[in-house]
Amino acid sequence: MNYRMDGKKIFTIFNYLFLIVLGLICIAPLLNTLAISLSSASAVAMGDVLFFPSNFSLDAYTFIATRSEFLTALNVSVMRVIVGSILQMLVTFISAYPLSRENRDFRMRTVYVWFFMFTILFSGGIVPLYMQVKTLGMLDSMMALVLPTSLAVFNIVLMINFFRILPRELDESFRIDGAGHWTLLWRLYFPLSLPAFATILLLAMVGHWNSWFDGMLFMNQTENYPIATYLRSIIVSFDFSNVRSEDAALLASISPRTTKSAQIILATLPILCVYPFLQRYFVTGLVLGSVKG
Amino acid sequence: MKTSSDTARMPVLARLRMRFKRELPYHLFLIPGIILAILFCYIPMIGIVMAFQKFTVFKGWFDAPWVGLANFKYVISMPRFGQVMFNTVYISVLKIIFSLLVPIIVALLLNEMRSRKMKRVLQTAMYLPHFLSWIILGGIILDILSLEGVVNSIISAFGGQPIGFLSSNTLFPGVLITTEVWKSFGFNTIIYMAALTSINPDLYEAAEIDGASRWRQIWHVTLPGIRPTIILLATLSLGNVLNAGFEQVFILLNPLVMDSGDILDTLVYRLAFNQAQYSVATAVGLFKSIVSGVLIAVSYYLAYKLADYRIF
Amino acid sequence: MKKQAAIVLGSILLLMSACSSQPNSTAPETASPGPSESDSVAPEKKIDLKVGRYSLPTWGYPEGDDFANNIWYRHYADKFGLNVTHEWTSLQSEYNEKLNIVIASGSIPDILMEISTNQLETLVEADMAADLTDVFNEHASDLTKEILYGDGGLGMNSATFDGKLMALPYMTSVIYEPSLLWVRQDWLDNLNLPVPQTIDDVMAVAKAFKEQDPDKNGKNDTGGLAFSNWLFDGITSLTGFFNGYHAYPQTWLKGDDGKITYGSIQPEMKNAIAKLREMYKAGLLDPEFGMKDTPKVVEEVTGGKYGITYGRNWNVYMYGAGLEGQPEMIWTPLVAPSADGKDVFANVGTTVVSYYVVNKNYEHPEILIQLLNEYNEMAYGPKRNDPEVKKFFAFEDGQTIVEQGHLSLVRTLTTDEATLKSLEYVIEAIEKRDPSKLDEALTETGKYEPSVAYLDGKGTGYMEYHQVKGFQTTIEHYGTDRLIPQAYSGTTDTMRDKMGILGDYEREMFTKLIMGAEPIDAFDTFVAEWKKQGGEQILNEINAVAKSN
To answer: Is the pTM above the cut of 0.80?
Structure first.
């Protein structure tokens, strides 16, 4: 017994150590970016900056504060995350519900599942999608960013599997009370699947925040770029073989890595704040609690 | 069972009508999803015909010259195509395996932590790399793994010879796999953590009463509890067997490790060099889709037959 | 070609002298007596023009202006009754990709700006581009014709398909492009070294910089010769090094027999590579250069790790950020040293940067030509020094001068001869501190004030001054007669299919050869393989095209 307790202690210590080191390794790149953003441009060019700022300077941040495009893009992204995540969660939720039924309750289930699976396997590529969005008159509008992404089959499948874990008896007892599908969905499934819901909501929000390609593809005016698209165009390296003498001066004013890093930090912070907030819902024993209650 | 004696006696038509009435709400729930799928997935799928055409500019989907399998042959005829296919599968399979295992292990270890606060902080830390694109991470990785980088400084400090991680054909796939897992494991850990919360605590209590050790509890309660999620994620990730990660490889690839690091997507990128070769890209995309489709279907079938579990 | 260029220059000079005798108070807003005047439509009649174009986040605008409402567009509205709208915009880094998708989707705006050769060929093949032959002949001003034909017609030829002019080329001066040797003068002085004049000197300087602590900081933190894994980029390049061996990588060369061949497969390449191997072995190159792209190497140079590198006249712009940490940093541009004492020639690109195309369905194709006339008139015409006209190219925002010439829908650079002459005026003006002759220059006049300010020890003209030094070296050593331009600028079928693969194969082999991962004789294998994998076919196609022209 005594021996076992010791083993447990040793395990706990190692477990903590290991996970903390792992966590540190994961923070390293962002820390590096943060340190660069807070250093002077010359210190960065000298390669002096690793995890601590050298020649501390807020120049990069004051520079960004003067650029309205950055804030505009941030605004587009926030809108997109809110509208897009709500839509996606709604579609995910109401699609996962029927698809999580047993085959004998919903005979067409398998057909529908493969109907949706097919869409993640096959795609016509970007040109047809661009033309379709154009035909629908959605170019340059928020619709183009939130509608095509609102059907997230991967998330639906995850949700189906979470729904299936829920005890069937609850379902039956609600039915016996004569509750309709909507009641069942919102009164029973929603509260019970909160941890799963929070997880998938996080996936949806992060997906919307990080996606840059559709912004570039569907937005006709750079003012409508979401932050990820804007950020990418700043970070992506220039094709130096094509630079003309006359443009060199313009490029020179872009290059500071400090500014790039500051924009990365500013663009990453908002979405980072979402996670601890959602984490409240990842509480163990929720299912049990409601079963007992 | 469902087929009660009442319904059994009904005429077939009435029974069908009743079933339809019962199932109608399910169909209605799916309408938004179906409309979205048709609008943004199925209609654009017409574009797959490009794989069999010499497409340059859209004039009508069926008006570009048909070339049969020429686009596929063109890709296959590339020098080193075999090596590239091997690299693609080799790198992606190892990525799939480790991307599955590492998050499970980390989720289990995190679950062993008592301090809820610590757990939260660590989980937040671990999902940070997910937010940085490969363009940013690529630069940092080049710095860290270079001959003068942090890792080699540590190796030298212990008296070792500096290692060219990014210039050695033996080490390069390992670098790709490690960095990919490092970037993504925190995020997948979250999914497993969510799955862990759905395990009935009564089961642990029961196991504890039976005197099962922590290891036995993990083996007999925790793992079976998250098995559906594991099977599900494994199946879905099989669809990526030909996606070895374009952005990452593209950024880290350099002439010295072409033999071990060149993958299908980087090859296609070079084929379509600065040039809108949509036909070739579509052909390769279709090929990848078919392979993924077959793999997913097979694993779906196996999970159903062997584990009696319908993944989706 | 030279003769024609001389005629062009002569006529431009003639135009200039003609202008200075005129009272030049008329602003371009009021009807200007330019060649384009007769073309201009009465402002009452509104013409819509939809364009797709890119912007850079660093572009600045005067108070109240923005990308869609700028001085150029207002001028177009006044003068041509033109209503310019942006059908789409993108940032520069995405422009090419966006353009490809727009072209592939089959619906393009009225005018496509700055498109590539490939895109032009796609458009022509798909019959989406308007035939500009007649409108060009009818509307192009003399000045426009002089500039567009300034390279002897090569550029216009590349925009002509089956005898029809399908696009207007954006011309450039290739004299901007020779790859010079840049050396840190302060480091040379610290070590008491002369400027390198031969390839062996280059090696000796690289060795001294690597080993003798040129920055005198007591740390072994400097390297030898800097270049990026692109090998033949505009800056941090090896092009100048190869030129020293009379090798011209990645260039379509006209051989002695009149046939076009490829520079990278010539035997001279092997000699240069052999020397680089020697330097690599001696530790004078970054052992991991294969992993470092241009931005990365630029960062290292900026940080004070390297003091010797090849690059075009503008490369110091990229290193400027390092000034703050090393204010003593001074660069000297030199002609690329020769391996054998013979004159060094520089391979340069084509005279065309990109193209302007009009949508076949657009009703006013002449607009494109009129806009170019207008730009040329304002940029290079008699009234270019009028403050009212200068406003279009730059405005003052507090202390800084912000450029806005790039907001013009259509642009082009001057011919080599005209650029050369302008550069001479600028250099002379700086040397004599006398801006009076600057008015005669067509371009680069903006370099004068910052350079003078820098020489006087005030102001931030460090980069401008260094670029002028680069110009000077270029003029003295290359002029226009030691340049080897691309002998072919189009795209053949096999090129489209194979050139990407071949280019990467070339880079891979050269990298391995320099690093000693392959024996030097593997160069011969490379040449054979390059030909076999499609290079031979490409050369045949190019020569067939060249013959038919």
So the answer is: yes
**Best mutation site among A46, A94, A122 for testing chain B: the one with the most B CBs within 10 Å?**
A122
- Reported as a single tens digit per residue, the pLDDT across B103-149 is 999 998 988 888 878 888 888 888 888 877 787 788 788 878 888 78
**Does residue C295 belong to any structural domain of this protein?**
yes
End-to-end, the C-alpha distance of chain B in Å comes to: 23
CA-CA distance, C136 to A169, in Å (whole number)?
Answer: 81
**Strand C180-184 to C331-334 pairing:** antiparallel
- What does the DSSP 8-state code read for residue B167? T
Helix, coil or strand: residue A49: coil
Tell whether B32 and B99 lie within a shared domain: no
Which subunits sit against A, judged by 3+ Cβ pairs under 8 A?
A: B, C
B35: nearest CA partner in chain A:
A151
Q: Which domain holds residue B259?
A: 78-271
Residue C165: phi and psi, rounded to 5, are -80, 115
Amino acid identity of B239? G
Contact between chains at C305 and A47 (C-beta distance less than 8 A) = yes
Which domain-ending residue is among A21, A37, A57? Answer: A57
Same domain flag for C145 and C187: no
CA distances for A251 relative to A242, C61, C92, C213, angstroms? 12, 17, 11, 31
CB A77, CB A227: distance < 8 Å? yes
Mean pLDDT by 10 residues, chain C (549 residues): 41 38 37 44 75 84 89 93 92 84 91 91 92 95 92 88 94 89 95 94 95 89 91 90 95 90 95 96 92 84 90 83 80 94 91 92 94 93 87 83 88 86 90 86 84 84 89 89 86 83 90 93 95 94 84
Sign (positive/negative) of CA torsion A109, A110, A111, A114? positive
Sign of the alpha-carbon dihedral angle for B102, B107, B109, B110: positive
Judged by CB atoms within 8 Å, which residues 50-79 of C form the interface with A? 55-59, 67
In a mutational test of the A interface, the residue from C58, C172, C182, C408 whose CB has the highest number of chain A CBs within 10 Å is C58
Question: Does residue B196 fall inside a structural domain?
Answer: yes
Question: What CATH code is carried by the domain that includes residue C313?
Answer: 3.40.190.10
Residue of A nearest to C411 (CA): A246
| One-letter identity of residue C27 | A
pLDDT digits (tens, 9 = 90+) for C383-402: 888 888 888 988 888 777 78
Which among C18, C145, C11 is positioned nearest to C421, based on CA atoms? C11
- Residue A101's SS3 state is coil
Amino acid at C118: N
The ipTM, to two decimals, is 0.84
Would you state the pLDDT for residue C33?
A: 41
Residue B273 C-alpha, separation from nearest chain A C-alpha, in angstroms: 13
Domain extent at residue C113: 22-171+352-407
Q: Is B301 exposed, middle or buried (0-12, 13-18, 19+ CB in 10 A)?
A: exposed
Contact flag A255-C318 (C-beta cutoff 8 Å): yes
A137 with A264, same domain?
yes
Of the three residues C442, C467, C482, the one that is the final residue of a domain is: C482
CA distance B256 to chain C (A): 7
Please report residues of A whose CB lies closer than 8 A to that of C94.
216, 229, 233
Inter-chain CB proximity A217 and C98 less than 8 Å: yes
Q: A273 and A133, same structural domain?
A: yes
Residue C302 lies in a domain: yes
Q: Looking at the domain assignment, is residue B305 inside a domain?
A: no
Helix (H, G, I), strand (E, B) or coil at C326: coil
Contact at CB, C234 and A134, closer than 8 angstroms: no
Task: Look at chain C and report how many structural domains it folds into.
Answer: 3
Measure in Å the smallest separation between the Cα of A142 and chain C Cα atoms: 15
Short-list A33, A52, A235, CA closest to B129: A33
Chain C partners within 8 Å of B55 (Cβ): 104
- Asked if C325 and A45 come within 8 Å (Cβ–Cβ), the reply is yes
